[in-house]
Design brief:
alpha/beta, Aldehyde Dehydrogenase, Chain A, domain 2, 18 strands, globular, oxidoreductase, Aldehyde_DH_dom, oxidoreductase activity, acting on the aldehyde or oxo group of donors, NAD or NADP as acceptor, Aldehyde dehydrogenase family protein
């Protein structure tokens, strides 16, 4: 297994921590609680593995393709374990496995291009690309495998080695993925380490790590950047979003309601680029609220392993407390729950799918990222008012505009201050496109060729022309 388990607790036993099933709220397994002082050996092995891995691009391509096949073969085991520790419906776990394999295939076939500069001098100047060395990825709990692949696939394709740390809420599927990938990759090219803090902080600040890529909250992202600065390591930070959906006055509510609902509630709303605020024209506001509330009241909520489930639990106890807090605050501020607004009775971390109306625009459920199954729907009187409100938070990951006149819709989308804008849909990405935010939503670019070049450095060779 490509993980280090050398940490020992009292009595010589390996230290471990509990992993909880969010559908029951009970521990169902444990993971190694590795300590920061173990990282020196892990990074050293990654550095030694780098020399062979970077030297043979053709071998890397073959290995990554074999790795993708191995992920597909292990799909059943990976999907069930992912659902057990994260909570999402099994169908969504299978989709995450497929996306993981697809990223490996995509980057296996992507290579940097050498470029010659012609500037009138009697010198051939050529830009080549070199890998950085051992790199680190710190991955959150909402899409642990898909986001891990978004980091390790371009890094490995570029010729780097990687130390990968999953969230302590979802370590098991990532450990299993590491074992699956170990059947295709040379030893120590990808190492999975699991543990609680300060393991992640030590990894981000480790002097042997040349690039740190992180997905998570803004405060933790700032801490990661500060830690990486000690060794001048490159950072890529994806720090979440508070995406707005702006509905225009020609929108056909009944035609978009399903797409809009699932753009907000997929993975129980625990998606960085989910719709987290809806702005509707005042004359359509009640109709939009009713359409979304009807879906929230009737969607099948339950354990992810139940084949009838469409919406699983919130993934962990701290996030459930956060969701409950922002919903209660909104209701206390005068909002009304058209659907939901409360925890569900029984075991597990379930919160009723919630549609809020009459929400004060300064309520935290509007200004902050709730990251759960709670959606405020706010009316607007003028389009300028809606655009200003959509742009009026510290986030800028994504946004969408919904309407019938596509030229007008696109013109409004062009006014959104975000990295990606969608028209009549939301949160759909191609593997070939860049993914980045503005403002507090992040630093750097992932996805497509941009993700590959983010894991490389330019190397320029000057050669005199032949006489």
């Amino acid at each position: 297994m490509p993980t280090s388990e050398t940490d020992r607790g009292h009595g010589g036993r390996a230290a471990r921590f509990a992993v909880v099933d969010p559908a029951t709220g009970e521990t169902f397994d444990e993971a190694p609680d590795q300590q920061p002082d173990e990282l020196d050996a892990v990074v050293d092995r990654a550095h030694r593995a780098w020399y062979g891995w970077r030297a043979d691009p053709a071998a890397r391509t073959t290995a990554l393709r074999v790795a993708a096949d191995a992920v597909v073969t292990a799909g059943d085991d990976l999907a069930r374990l992912l659902t057990r520790e994260q909570g999402k419906p099994l169908a969504e776990s299978y989709a995450e496995i497929a996306r993981t394999a697809a990223r490996l295939c995509y980057f296996a076939d992507l290579a940097p291009r050498t470029r010659r500069i012609t500037d009138g001098r009697p010198v051939h100047s050529e830009i080549r690309w070199r890998p950085l060395g051992p790199v680190a990825a710190i991955v959150p709990w909402n899409f642990p495998l898909q986001l891990a692949a978004a980091k390790f696939a371009p890094a490995l394709a570029a010729g780097n080695t990687m130390v990968l740390k999953p969230s302590p809420f979802t370590p098991l599927a990532t450990r299993l993925l590491g074992s699956v990938l170990a059947t295709a990759l040379p030893e120590d090219v990808l190492t999975v380490v699991t543990g609680r803090e300060p393991l992640g902080a030590r990894l981000a600040s480790h002097p042997g790590i040349r690039h740190v890529t992180f997905t998570g909250s803004v405060p933790t992202g700032r801490a990661v950047a500060e830690a990486a600065a000690a060794s001048l390591a490159r950072v890529t930070l994806e720090l979440g979003g508070n995406d707005a959906a702006v509905l225009l006055d020609d929108v056909e509510v009944d035609r978009i309601a399903d797409r809009l609902f699932w753009a907000a509630f997929r993975n129980c709303g625990q998606v960085c680029m989910a719709v987290k605020r809806v702005y509707a024209p005042a004359r359509l506001h009640a109709e939009v609220v009713e359409a979304l509330a009807q879906r929230a009241k009737t969607v099948a909520v339950g354990a992810g392993l139940d084949p009838d489930t469409r919406l699983g639990p919130v993934s962990n106890a701290p996030q459930l407390a956060r969701v409950e807090q922002v919903a209660k605050r909104a209701l206390a501020d005068g909002a009304r729950a058209a659907a939901g607004g409360h925890r569900l009775d029984g075991p597990g971390y379930f919160f009723a799918p919630t549609i809020l109306t009459d929400v004060p625009p300064g309520s935290p459920v509007v200004t902050e990222e709730q990251f759960g199954p709670v959606l405020p729907v706010l009316p607007y009187r003028s389009l300028d008012e809606a655009v200003d409100a959509a742009n009026g938070t510290g986030f800028g990951l994504g946004g969408s505009v919904w309407g019938t006149d596509l030229d007008r819709t696109e013109a409004v989308a062009d006014r959104l201050e975000c990295g990606t804008a969608w028209i009549n849909h939301h949160a759909e990405l191609s593997l070939a496109q860049p993914f980045a935010g503005v403002k507090n939503s992040g630093v750097g670019v992932a996805g497509g060729p941009w993700g590959l070049y983010g894991n490389l450095r330019p190397f320029v060779v000057h050669r005199p022309q032949e006489a």
